[in-house]
Design brief:
- This protein is of the alpha+beta class.
- The protein has one domain (about 20-364).
- The protein has 9 helices and 23 strands.
- The protein has helices at about 1-20, 35-40, 70-75, 90-110, 120-125, 180-185, 240-245, 315-320, 335-364; strands at about 30-35, 45-55, 55-65, 65-70, 75, 80-90, 115, 135, 140-145, 145-150, 155-160, 160, 170, 190-205, 210-225, 225-230, 255-260, 265-270, 275-285, 285-290, 295-305, 305, 325-335.
- Helix 4 (about 90-110) runs parallel beside helix 9.
- The longest helix has 27 residues, at about 335-364.
Length: about 375
């Protein structure tokens, strides 16, 4: 019997090791306000969002504007550096399968703790969802440029409208305080939101650029704690005479930035603009996923051309030196589809498990 128990113990430790061997250090933190209030609330939960996102492509751009510096500074041309890096080999069906498993684990844990899951059909009867549309997973789509959002099979949510590009706009319910309104509308039920971001790039520092445009991207596959998604803006030419004179609508090198944070929240009840009780779980630092994407960097560098007038200057030399210059570096990295999907699942599932453990430990 002792030898059998020893074998079982070895199996347990081995399984734990296999589960965590490809993950870096895992440090989570959370804040819980109104524990006593939430304990007294109905044991009903509505899952308002379950967003799992992963990055497969990143493009970054830097622009150095030229100009006339006179006889001393001379004339300088504009310089543009553009770097792009992507992952090849990711399989959509595996990513959907892992997302479904994450959601199933989440729902089963809530049910095992004695909670009733409020359906989207019931939530759709509230006034908050008047004139909204409902959609149900599974589905995979681009949430931001280069970032894929996966919707679990069987999960339903409401959205206000779709853009011409098919992008879903969820409207005001994603804002601060609106989960509290929804909780009140559903009889003081707890509202759950899950947002996870698995990223593989980081922006490198570009010191001492001088008269040049420079972009540096580094690879680091991880479940991101906090990250700023930067999407280069593609300039659009203005129409008409004014457009020809003033140029493009957007400034060259401009980006649209979107904050991304992996988190889980539970909110319950409504008082004023906030909620009676809330739990917020986040990461202290990124969870690194090792052994899937080799750490490397991609750099694009373009020096500005310059022209200082002298008595020996030629017009052709001026044109050549002050012309706009471009440098583009693109790299694709092939990954093992199964390893990538496992790393994605393990990091997200570990984070959710730790936060649910913390939440329900306070609720007992």
């Amino acid at each position: 019997m002792k030898s059998l128990n020893f074998v079982l113990l070895i199996c347990v430790f081995t399984s734990i090791h296999l589960f965590s061997q490809d993950l870096g250090e895992i440090n989570v933190k959370n804040q819980f306000y109104g524990v006593k209030t939430m304990k007294k609330a109905p044991k009903k939960i509505y899952i308002n969002s379950f967003n799992v996102n992963y990055e497969f492509y990143k493009e970054a751009v830097d622009f150095k504007n030229g100009g006339n510096g006179g006889r001393i500074g001379g004339n300088k041309g504009s310089a543009t550096a553009r770097a792009a890096i992507g992952l090849g080999g990711i399989q959509a069906n595996l990513m959907q399968e892992k997302t479904n498993k994450l959601y199933t684990n989440f729902v089963n844990r809530l049910k095992s703790e004695g909670y009733e899951i409020i359906s989207a059909d019931e939530a759709g009867k509230t006034e908050l969802y008047n004139d909204w549309k409902k959609t149900t997973g599974p589905s995979i789509g681009e949430s931001f440029s280069g970032i894929i959002n996966t919707v679990p099979e069987g999960f339903s949510f409401f959205y206000k409208r779709k853009t011409d590009k098919g992008e879903i706009k969820k409207g005001f319910l994603g804002g601060i305080g609106n989960q509290a309104k929804l909780s009140k509308a559903l009889g003081e039920a707890t509202i759950a939101d899950v947002n996870l971001f698995v990223m593989f790039t980081e922006n490198g520092t570009n010191l001492f650029k001088g008269s040049a445009a420079k972009v540096k991207l580094k690879t680091n596959l991880r479940l991101a704690s906090n990250y700023l998604i930067s999407v280069p803006v593609k300039p659009k030419k203005k129409k008409g005479i004014a457009g020809k004179l003033l140029g493009s609508v957007s400034i060259k090198g401009a980006t649209n930035d979107y904050p991304a944070s992996s988190n889980i929240t539970f909110m319950q009840g409504k008082v004023g603009l906030g909620s009676k009780a809330s739990f917020t779980g986040i990461l202290k630092e990124d969870i690194e996923i090792n052994g899937v994407v080799e750490k490397q960097k991609v750099v694009a560098y373009q020096k500005q051309g310059s022209f200082v007038p002298t008595s020996f200057s030629t017009y052709s030399g001026y044109l050549s030196a002050t012309a706009d210059r471009f440098s583009t570096t693109t790299k694709w990295i092939d990954v093992d589809a199964k390893k990538y999907a496992e790393g994605y699942y393990n990091s997200c599932n570990t984070f959710l498990t730790k936060q649910l453990d913390a939440f329900f430990a306070k609720m007992k």
